[in-house]
């Protein structure tokens, strides 16, 4: 039997209402020589019955709940494709996603990671807002990540594909990434090869309240994100040191972290001005106009947001 060229790896946890659409979008791809592996990470809803209905068309693995990183690692260990394509169970793809991804890897033999934009949608699948990320980054990105503490206009999990040889070099995703395991993919693989961005929105990103996304920002969410960013910097530096790569990240270069900290602590006019100036030179957003807009917007809203967070904390 011919070895699959592409492995589609779907991680699912309690998304019985969504995972069928994700799988169907893979089955309807115009690419051939594709294997589909779904790892159910200890779901307690109706996911099992949904997944078992696909029979031999999909390889399904059930495991006890261990988090997104563990689910993805299990899927990769069970796969054989040369290109690994990741899909969250609540998202889905356009029919040409896999063929376009394979073509991009063929055209760029030095690429470790290929990605595309995603079209955000509401829970019911209705498109909303513009495709993300707005800024696209291609080529050798390691200098950018070194200057920005690993932050860049990165794609979400369902937009990411990596070469198996790069996965083998990087190793499994550390299981500390129980959620947002894509932080490892988009933070490590630019140090292992080129990154290729495809401009078309070849997938759909469903927006709904989950373990990471909240429609409103509060102190708890901010602290969770800051802890995640800090641990990601630490994990990246450990990887770089272990692989004897010269780059090192500094959390002080992570402008979103500094903004979040100021939101929690409150910020006077001098601090807002300082952060606005720093934001104008932040390497994590290569597009000058967006960088300027984001810097002024973030710094300008610090006083109000810091007060809001403080009030929400005082009300607890």
From TrEMBL:
The lineage of its organism: Bacteria, Pseudomonadati, Pseudomonadota, Alphaproteobacteria, Hyphomicrobiales. InterPro entries: Glyco_trans_2-like, Glycosyltransf_2, Nucleotide-diphossugar_trans. PANTHER family: GLYCOSYLTRANSFERASE, GLYCOSYLTRANSFERASE TAGX-RELATED. This is Glycosyltransferase. It comes from the Bacteria. Residues 7-119 form the Glycosyltransferase 2-like domain. Gene3D superfamilies: Spore Coat Polysaccharide Biosynthesis Protein SpsA, Chain A. One of its GO terms (molecular function) is transferase activity. Keywords: Transferase.
């Amino acid at each position: 039997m011919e070895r699959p060229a592409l492995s589609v790896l779907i991680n699912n946890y309690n998304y019985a209402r969504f995972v069928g659409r994700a799988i169907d979008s893979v089955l309807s791809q115009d690419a051939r020589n594709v294997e589909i592996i779904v790892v159910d990470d200890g779901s307690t809803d109706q996911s099992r019955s949904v997944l078992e209905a696909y029979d031999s068309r999909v390889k399904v693995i059930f495991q006890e709940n261990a988090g997104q990183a563990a689910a993805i690692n299990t899927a990769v260990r069970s796969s054989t494709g040369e290109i690994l394509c990741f899909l969250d169970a609540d998202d889905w793809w356009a029919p040409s996603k896999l063929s376009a991804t394979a073509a991009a890897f063929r055209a760029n033999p030095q690429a470790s990671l290929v990605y595309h934009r995603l079209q955000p949608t509401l829970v019911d699948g209705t498109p909303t807002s513009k495709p993300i990320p707005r800024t696209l980054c291609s080529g050798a990105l390691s200098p950018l990540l070194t200057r920005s503490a690993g932050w860049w206009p990165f794609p979400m999990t369902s937009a990411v594909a990596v070469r198996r040889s790069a996965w083998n070099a990087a190793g499994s995703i550390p299981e500390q990434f129980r959620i947002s395991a894509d932080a490892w993919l988009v933070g490590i693989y630019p140090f292992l090869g080129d990154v290729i961005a495809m401009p078309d929105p070849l997938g759909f990103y469903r927006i709904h309240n989950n373990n990471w996304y909240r429609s409103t920002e509060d102190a708890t969410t901010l602290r969770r994100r800051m802890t995640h960013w800090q641990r990601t910097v630490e994990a990246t530096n450990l990887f770089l040191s272990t692989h004897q790569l010269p780059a090192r990240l500094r959390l002080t270069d992570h402008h979103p972290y500094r903004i979040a900290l100021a939101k929690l602590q409150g910020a006077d006019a001098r601090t807002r001005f300082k952060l606005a100036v720093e934001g104008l030179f932040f390497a994590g957003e290569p597009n000058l106009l967006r960088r300027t807009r984001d810097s002024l917007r973030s710094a300008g809203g610090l006083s109000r947001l810091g007060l809001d967070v403080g009030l929400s904390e005082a009300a607890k």
